[in-house]
Amino acid sequence: MSISYTYIHLFDNLVFDSNTQYGLTKTNVPQYLDNLRELKRGIRIWPHQDHVNTIGSKWELAQSLDIIAQKRTNTARPTTRLLVDGENIVDEMVLKRTHSDAGEHVVLPWHLNRRNWEYLRSHLDVPGSQWIAQSYMEPLAKLGEWRVFLVGGVIVYTVHTLKNQDRNTWSWDIVNTFYTLEELR
């Protein structure tokens, strides 16, 4: 007797994003998750929903990167911590929602109208989401960010995201050459 499974790949943050592009809102996310649990009874879903939620969390990612930086590469990382509801918000910190995508829920130090608990609470519509505070890194705006995509432990490609200071936008390109860590320091 053979068993066949249908696999559904849920992309990072798809389930827990409340942006209208996905059609999910804080009103219908619970129903969506109930339907997903029912669907799991008849077919195999990969990756598991708990894994999608964990991997989609900036807090979980920051903790993993802190461990790698400290124990493997002995390099510095921006300070990242969970915010406690109602605490004083430090002016120099970048605020990020743990579950978001495409920079939708990032509050930079100069976004004064969003640096308050009324705004932050009104943007916690994703189940399990929280706000984190992270040190503002000026070099990010100047040097950009490199994102390395690995499949099976092999680098598939690297993307360099760079800020256009004049237009206050970000652009990206696939990278073919690299700086060493010494050159970046």
Portion of residues in beta strands equals 15-25%
| SS summary, helix count | 6
Q: Kindly state the number of beta strands.
A: 9
Uncertain runs are 1-19
Rg from alpha-carbon coordinates: 19 Å
Distance between the termini: 60 Å
For the biggest β-sheet, the strand order reads: 3-6-4-5
The number of domains is 3
**Biggest sheet record:** 4 strands, antiparallel
Question: Structural class given helices, strands, pairing?
Answer: alpha+beta
Helix content: 25-40%
Note the overall shape.
Answer: globular
Mean pLDDT value = 79
User: SSE order in H/E notation?
Assistant: EHEHHEEEHEHEEEH
Q: Could you characterize what this model shows?
A:
This protein is α+β, with helices and mostly antiparallel strands and 185 residues long. It folds into three domains: 7-55, no CATH class; 58-136; 140-184, no CATH class. Helix content is 28%, strand content 24%. It has six helices and nine strands. The protein has helices at residues 29-40, 49-55, 58-73, 117-122, 138-143, 181-184; strands spanning 7-9, 44-46, 80-82, 93-97, 106-107, 131-135, 145-151, 154-164, 169-174. The strands form three sheets. A four-stranded antiparallel sheet has the order 3-6-4-5, with helices on one face. A three-stranded antiparallel sheet has the order 7-8-9. The longest helix is centred in the middle third of the chain and has 16 residues, at 58-73. It is globular, with a radius of gyration of 19 Å. Residues 1-19 have low confidence and may be disordered.
